[in-house]
Amino acid sequence: MSTSVEPEQRSLQDEAPEESSFREKLRAWLAEQHLPVLSGSDGAGRTAEEYDEESVRAARDFQRRLAEAGFAALTWPVEYGGQGLSSRYELIFQQEVAGYELPTTLLGVGFGMCGPTVLRHGTDEQRARYIPPLVKGEEIWCQLFSEPGAGSDLASVRSRAVRVDGGWRVNGQKVWTSGGRHSQFGLALLRCDPAAPKHAGLMVAIVDMADKGVEVRPLRQMTGHAKFDEVFLDDVFLPDERLVGEPGEGWTVARTTLLNERVSVAGNTALRGGSVSMLVAAARSAGREQEPRLRGRLADAWIDELVLSLLRERTKRAIEAGRTPGPEGAVGKLAASRYIQSASRTGVLIHGEDATTWDADEEGADEWALRLCAAPGLAIGGGTDEIVKNIIGERVLGLPREPRVAPTEPGVNGRAPAKGEK
C-alpha cells in the first residue's frame, strides 16, 4: 500500500508566506508518518466497521504525535493545548491530510462536536480539565443526545436530571452513540425541568463513562458490526461542576454541538472525495463504461461530487472571513447524505454479484457490501434528511414553519406531569 501523496498545487486565496511555510512543514511531517493513502475511496465502507482495541490505540498514538508536532487543535487556545492559529490554518491542514487515511475517526466526535461546545460554553475550570487531554489523545469523547423516542425531535429527550444535594441524579437511556464503549466522557442532553416548555427545560452535562450506573451496550447493525452503542443511565450522580452552561440553557448549548456536527459531516465527506474516479475506474475495468444506464449514473455522481466540492468551498470562504457555522451547514450535510448513498448504489451496480457475495478469507472483499449497508446511516446521523430539509427551508430560505403537532407526553410539552404520572 502506498504511503505517500503526490504534492498538489493547493493554496488558499491570498495565502500568506507564513501559511505556505506551515503547509510545507505539515506536508513533510505527514510524509514521515507512513500513513496509508486513500485510493479514490470515500471511506464509506471501511469506516463502517466497529472500533477494536488496536484502532483505539492507533487513534490515541497518532493524536499524541500530532500534538507533539504542533499540528493538533490548530484554532483552539494555546492555554488549553491548541495552537492559537486562525481558521485558515485548519483549512490548510484539511487540504493536506485529504489524501491520507487518518486513524483518528474515533476522535471525531470529541474534536468536531464536544470540544468546541466545552470551549464555547464551559467554565475556565472545565476547559482546563477536559480540553488538554482531548488534544493529546489521552481521553475520548462521545455524544449522548439521541434517545429511543427523541432522535429527529431532539428537544423531546426524556432522560431526567433531578436536583440533589451537590449535583444531579440522572436516569434515562441514550442510543446511537458512536464509540461509547471506548469513551472516557460523554456530553449529555438531559431534561431538568419537565414543567417548562420542551426547549427551555433542558441542560447539558459531562458524564464520566466510568461512573457507577453507566452501562454501555453495543448495537449490532446490518453491516454485522457494532460501531454504535446504547447507554443506560441508572441513578448516575453528576456533580454541579459537570454542567456545561446553566440549567434551562441546554438547547442553546446543544445547538452549538449540532451546528458543528452538520458542518463536520459535510466537510469530511467532501474531503474524502474521489468516489467518481474510483467508480469510473471500476466501470472501465469491468468493460461497462459505455453502458447508457451506467454512464447516466456516473454523470449523476460527478454532479453530486461537484456540488459537494462547491458547498465546501463556500464554507471554507465563510470560515476564512471569520464567520462561524450556521444553519446553512445543513445544505452540505444533505448533499453529503445523497452523494454517499447514490455512489454506493452505483458501485454495487458496477460490481454486480461480486458486491454482495465474496470470499470471506479475502481482505477487503466485502467493501462494497459494507458501503451499501452503511450508506443509509448518513441520512439519519447528525439529523435525518427530513429534519435537515426543514432547517434549510425555515432557517436558510425563510419559508413558513412546517405545522407541528404538540406532543402529549408529560414533561416534554410545557406541562407538569399530572398526579400519578412520572
TrEMBL record:
Using the record's annotation, list all stretches that form the Acyl-CoA dehydrogenase/oxidase C-terminal domain. Answer: 248-397
Q: Which InterPro entries does its entry note?
A: Acyl-CoA_Oxase/DH_mid-dom, Acyl-CoA_Oxase/DH_mid-dom_sf, AcylCo_DH-like_C, AcylCo_DH/oxidase_C, AcylCoA_DH/ox_N, AcylCoA_DH/ox_N_sf, AcylCoA_DH/oxidase_NM_dom_sf, Mycobact_Acyl-CoA_DH
Q: Which domain of life is it from?
A: Bacteria
Q: Which residues form the Acyl-CoA dehydrogenase/oxidase N-terminal domain?
A: 17-138
Q: Does the keyword Protein transport apply?
A: no
**Which Gene Ontology MF annotations are present?**
flavin adenine dinucleotide binding; oxidoreductase activity, acting on the CH-CH group of donors
What are the protein's UniProt keywords? FAD, Flavoprotein, Oxidoreductase
- One Pfam assignment: Acyl-CoA_dh_1
Any single Gene Ontology cellular-component annotation: plasma membrane
- Ranges where the record places region Disordered: 1-20, 402-422
Q: Which cofactor does it need?
A: FAD
**Where is each Acyl-CoA oxidase/dehydrogenase middle domain found?**
142-236
The entry's family comment says: Belongs to the acyl-CoA dehydrogenase family.
Output this protein's name: Dehydrogenase
The scientific name of the source species is Actinomadura physcomitrii
